[in-house]
Amino acid sequence: MARLELDDVRKVFTDDDGSDIVAVDDVSVDIADGEFLVLVGPSGCGKSTTLRMIAGLESVSGGDIRLGGRSIVNKKPQNRDIAMVFQSYALYPHMTTRQNMSFGLEESTDLSDEEIAERVENAADLLSIPELLDRKPGELSGGQQQRVALGRAIVREPEVFLMDEPLSNLDAKLRSQMRTELQRIQEDLDTTTVYVTHDQTEAMTMGDRIAVLDGGELQQAGTPLECYHRPANRFVAGFIGEPSMNFFDMDVEGDRLVGDRFEYALTDEQATAVANAGTVTLGIRPEDIAVTVGSEATADNEFPTVVDVVEPMGNENAVYLGFEADPTNPFVATVGGMRQLDADERVVARFPADAIHLFDGATGEALHNRALDEGAEVEPRV
Amino acid sequence: MRDILSSTRTRLRRALRGGDSDDDAVTDDGRVATDGGTAAGGAAGAAGTGGLLDRLDERIGEDFTESAVFWLPPFLLMGLFVYGAIAWNFVISLTDYQGFVGPDYSDLDFEMYVRAANDAGVIEATVNTFLLVVSFTAVALAFGLVLAILVDRDIRFENTFRTIYLLPMSLSFVVTAQFWLWMYNFNNGVVNILLGTVGIGPINWIGNSQIVLWAVVFALVWQFSGYTMVVYLAGLRAIPREHFEAARVDGASTLKMYWRVIVPQLKGSTISAAIVLMVFALKAFDFLYSLVSGYRPPNGTDILATKMVREAYSVNNWAYASAIAIILFLMALSIIGPYLYYQYSKGEL
């Protein structure tokens, strides 16, 4: 187990016509010993490339990767003491589960056959798959194959686990089960883990910290709640959270924001934060929007709206609201699952001042983040 | 294929069960009527006139007789000209047919097989055939595998290499034989000239009965390893990249990765390539024939095929040649049979 440091790691692919494509652009992250870091971002953001560079499956174009203080950039994958779980599991189809799990130990260590057998059986017990040891991957279900792939990594007892979207081939029910189990196993083993996913539920629930990537650049690295409540920029704010944060482009006019469809009154503190920006993006999470029925929009920051579509989820309803004046481009608010709202109903939406985020209109940098109750946990849990 | 067979089987069984399964048959016909629309006629016929076709329909099922137009002609042609010929050949091998008088079918025995078992020439030819088949197949597979692995490593001009390696396959055996005859020429063949520059030789490749078989194997390997390469390349491409990567992350060296993870997954490619190569090796007659333009191949390369043709057309030992042909056929069958069974047991036949 060791600390894994990524120092200005860069990956440039050269296209056939000689042009360069920057897949990973100077990413720096420190992953503490035993930490669970989730790399998250949309497709093509460079998260898998980053993981593959740590594994040694891609060469590094610039920067350094250090494991336990020593650079591993020039080491071959087989000498890096890492174990990887692939999205497709990549189980060797001609070997039984037992052989699949022993393979890495046979190749990378000089343990005796008995020791290898013991480790394999311990790992199989940990994953509750001892009865699958003599079956071949073709005879296993997707979930079972996933466990075997995990077991193959666990028996190695490596310095670092690398996981490339390991749960994305499972159905939703199994995925949430395995998510919990994976977390439990990682906590038991206390092995440094880098986990790549595009699924932000996995990112929020599993990681000690998450690193959000977009376009090859690191947008923010922090605890899940930090990224949720204190996004560094508009991209992180929009990427983390489901349904996504609502964004409105506004012009700054003193202590008011003026948009196409509504005006918003800022507090003094907020007005100071946006004083130097010409345009800002106002962001508000769907669950922060207060929806009231049957009253008039009287106070500041209350807006008359019309319900466009209601998506019932059981525990909550996602309500798409259009401004009464201009009902195109509705925004989304979530209300309790017991609230009855119907399409075309007229409701009042209030954007509470302490819940809004403000981002620079040009750069997307966060200028102001929402207020948090005292003691709200955004610091690392470790 | 299997589905058709099993449905035919159930139909047969139903037909054989007879009267008490009539209800069953009617519902079955009713179901057919919805797609085919001909069931009513069939059912009426079965109950009524009872002509030959109707009775066949009743016994085997309509699809069987209706589709006969398509499968019967090739079935008959194949049966007559392939299996009929084999059977006739076998019968001839039981006679004492030789010279210009026709065969006498009244006196059938296995005399020719006894004679073959005691004929040093046949035994030598069998050994040579066996050596040729085994060594050629093994070397061509190994060489093709190495080529495929090298070409698979994302090299530049991959398609060009693939074409270059595959090209010899497109040549006829006759061309290859003539070509290698010149290459192996004792005085001015390329092989001896090249070896001469490093101080070896000259070697009498064709004349030396100890090495001529291996010279032939080498020429055949040259011609067929490109084919093996293409088969293996397709097999390699079907293996997900992650298997290579997983093996590397698991700590396997390149050699171990191929040996333990990749090559075992090429079992299917190996089997199908091996079958083709073996069959070609058994047919090496044309290569040897064109090497010397005659029935007597170079000393040390006599295989069953050349021996058979020589016995038949040089000395008119028709029955004896037929017996050798049957031996050769059984050898080929012993290769193909297990393969067909393997395919069948995997449900691919």
TrEMBL record, chain A:
- E.C. no: 7.5.2.13
Catalytic reaction equation(s) = D-xylose(out) + ATP + H2O = D-xylose(in) + ADP + phosphate + H(+); L-arabinose(out) + ATP + H2O = L-arabinose(in) + ADP + phosphate + H(+)
Stored InterPro entries? AAA+_ATPase, ABC_transporter-like_ATP-bd, ABC_transporter-like_CS, ABC_transpr_MalK-like, ABC_transpr_MalK/UgpC-like, Mo/tungstate-bd_C_term_dom, NA-bd_OB-fold, OB_MalK-like
Q: Which UniProt keywords apply?
A: ATP-binding, Nucleotide-binding, Transport
> Know the name of this protein?
ABC-type D-xylose/L-arabinose transporter
Q: What does this protein do?
A: Part of the ABC transporter complex XacGHIJK involved in the uptake of xylose and arabinose. Responsible for energy coupling to the transport system.
Q: Name one GO molecular function term.
A: ATP binding
Q: Which NCBIfam families match?
A: PRK11650.1 (NF008653)
Q: Where is it mostly found?
A: membrane
Any Pfam family hit: OB_MalK
Complexes and interactors: The complex is composed of two ATP-binding proteins (XacJ and XacK), two transmembrane proteins (XacH and XacI) and a solute-binding protein (XacG).
Does the keyword Transport feature in the UniProt annotation? yes
Task: Indicate where this protein resides in the cell.
Answer: Cell membrane
Q: Hey, which family's this protein in?
A: Belongs to the ABC transporter superfamily. Carbohydrate uptake transporter-1 (CUT1) (TC 3.A.1.1) family.
- Please name the taxonomic classification of the source: Archaea, Methanobacteriati, Methanobacteriota, Stenosarchaea group, Halobacteria
Q: Where is the ABC transporter domain?
A: 4-240
Q: Which organism is it from?
A: Halobaculum litoreum
What is one cellular component GO term in this UniProt entry? plasma membrane
Question: Which superkingdom heads the taxonomic lineage of this protein's source?
Answer: Archaea
Topology term for the membrane: Peripheral membrane protein
